Amino acid sequence: MLQATIPMLRAPKGLLGAALLLVLLAGCEAPVMRPAPIAPQAEASDALPSPTQQAANFVRVAGAMEPQIEAECLARTRGRNCDYQIVVDDRPGQPANAFQTEDRSGRPIVGFTLALIAEARNEDELAFVMGHEAAHHIAGHLQSKTQDAYTGAAILGVLAAAYGADARGISEAQNIGAAVGSRAYSKDYELEADRLGTIITWNAGFDPLRGAEFFTRIPDPGQTFLGTHPANGLRIDEVRRTVAELRAGRL
Q1: How far is it, in rounded angstroms, from Cα 153 to Cα 11?
Q2: Going by C-beta distance under 8 Å and a sequence separation of 6 or more, which residues neighbour residue 240?
Q3: Alpha helices, DSSP H only, in 163-248?
Q4: What's the pTM value of the predicted model, to 2 decimals?
């Protein structure tokens, strides 16, 4: 749970980091209340919140999202570790980023850099990004990408050997195959995580449409060959379709 992970965070650097640490410590003393459902398509402010408000937003969102994320994980998986840990990466100079990984025991970790927390305009954006990253673990995308890499390495390795490549050539072909294989379905995995992340965000009482406005402010990867992320417009469309299904009661 969130309160168990708070003491593991290092003291963040800078004004936002200091504010975040203060609010995190305050969060240990009282339970974080789940937000009331937000009306769809609420208007978002273009103004950045203050560092203290940004920190408070993150703690509140984490407190509301974590139980919903874990409930979705338990409902949708069998035998998968659903004890999420939400952390802040406070290393200096890290760009705005959120990520999902696992520790050595297989416990899922969702991490945010301070820069991303600082760039979020509202709680809905934080919630949507958190739901998206959590969805990767529920959908097993880390394992799928690893298998894709193995498959790509094996195929190109066999082809290189068939064409008479030496050991070095086969190894290079396997490395290329692994890189290509790991990217082959990356865009599909991102859209799948957007869809499931939208459901989680909605069920936790946040507005995923407002949250997806984050995509309008980040560089658009477009349709780059072997790119890892789909175009921002495609991702926003996926969120809109999913919200329409939720409103219609089909999900």
Answers
A1: 41
A2: 209
A3: 167-184, 186-203, 208-211, 232-247
A4: 0.73
